[in-house]
């Protein structure tokens, strides 16, 4: 016979191999996009949790009446409280003691840079906790992280009673 018996030649045709490779490529690409999005959201959540932790540290310093070395630069000054304030660039904030004479520059206890390419997007720029009772002004800090063409945000809120909350992440298209 002059024709080839195809039943004896087992294997895959070039078209079948190309289709399989294309499907694998599409699945890999979409999973990488999903993983990068997940990783970005986790980085934003981590930065929000760090801010909450630093707000609680600031509140604890106010509750305990802790006074830093060389604070308030003057005699007769009392500790009014502790504060957390965002400074320029909006990826950095500081924890500072607050003097009873607000015209005196407070001493900075700690300066923190937000991790994971997170920036402060909106809300308030600072919050102060009163000495001894730890009460605060109502404040909210909106943190944002750009994820490709969209961004995600998380909000950290303090209440006048001194409670500190972390909201769920929201996606902004």
User: Helical proportion?
Assistant: 25-40%
CATH superfamily: minor pseudopilin epsh domain
* Major sheet details: 5 strands, antiparallel
The CATH architecture can be named as: 3-Layer(bab) Sandwich
Number of helices: 1
Q: Give the overall average pLDDT.
A: 85
Query: Strand-residue fraction?
Result: 25-35%
Give the topology string: H per helix, E per strand.
HEEEEEEEEE
Q: Output the CATH class name.
A: Alpha Beta
Distance between the termini: 65 Å
Global outline: rod-shaped
Helix-strand category: alpha+beta
Whole-number tally of structural domains? 1
Low-pLDDT runs: none
Got a strand count? 9
Rg, Cα atoms, Å: 27 Å
Explain the overall architecture:
The protein is α+β, with helices and mostly antiparallel strands and 173 residues long. It has a single domain, classed as minor pseudopilin epsh domain (minor pseudopilin epsh fold), CATH 3.55.40.10. The protein is 29% helix and 33% strand. The chain contains one helix and nine strands, in the order H-E-E-E-E-E-E-E-E-E. Strands 4, 6, 7, 8 and 9 form a five-stranded antiparallel sheet that branches. A four-stranded antiparallel sheet has the order 3-2-1-5, with helices on one face. The N and C termini lie far apart (65 Å).
């Amino acid at each position: 016979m002059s024709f080839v018996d195809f039943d004896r030649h087992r294997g895959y045709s070039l078209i079948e191999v190309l289709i399989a490779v294309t499907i694998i490529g599409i699945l890999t690409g979409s999973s990488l996009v999903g993983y990068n999005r997940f990783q970005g959201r986790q980085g934003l959540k981590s930065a929000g949790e760090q801010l909450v932790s630093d707000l609680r540290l600031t509140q604890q310093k106010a509750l305990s009446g802790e006074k830093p070395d060389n604070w308030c630069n003057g005699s007769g000054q009392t500790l009014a409280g502790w504060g957390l304030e965002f400074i320029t660039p909006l990826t950095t904030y500081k924890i500072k003691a607050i003097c009873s004479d607000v015209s005196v520059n407070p001493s900075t206890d700690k300066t923190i840079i937000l991790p994971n390419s997170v920036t402060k997007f909106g809300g308030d720029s600072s919050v102060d906790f009163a000495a001894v009772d730890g009460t605060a002004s109502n404040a909210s800090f909106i943190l944002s992280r750009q994820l490709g063409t969209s961004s995600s945000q998380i909000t950290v809120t303090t209440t006048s009673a001194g409670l500190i909350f972390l909201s769920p992440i929201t996606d902004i298209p």
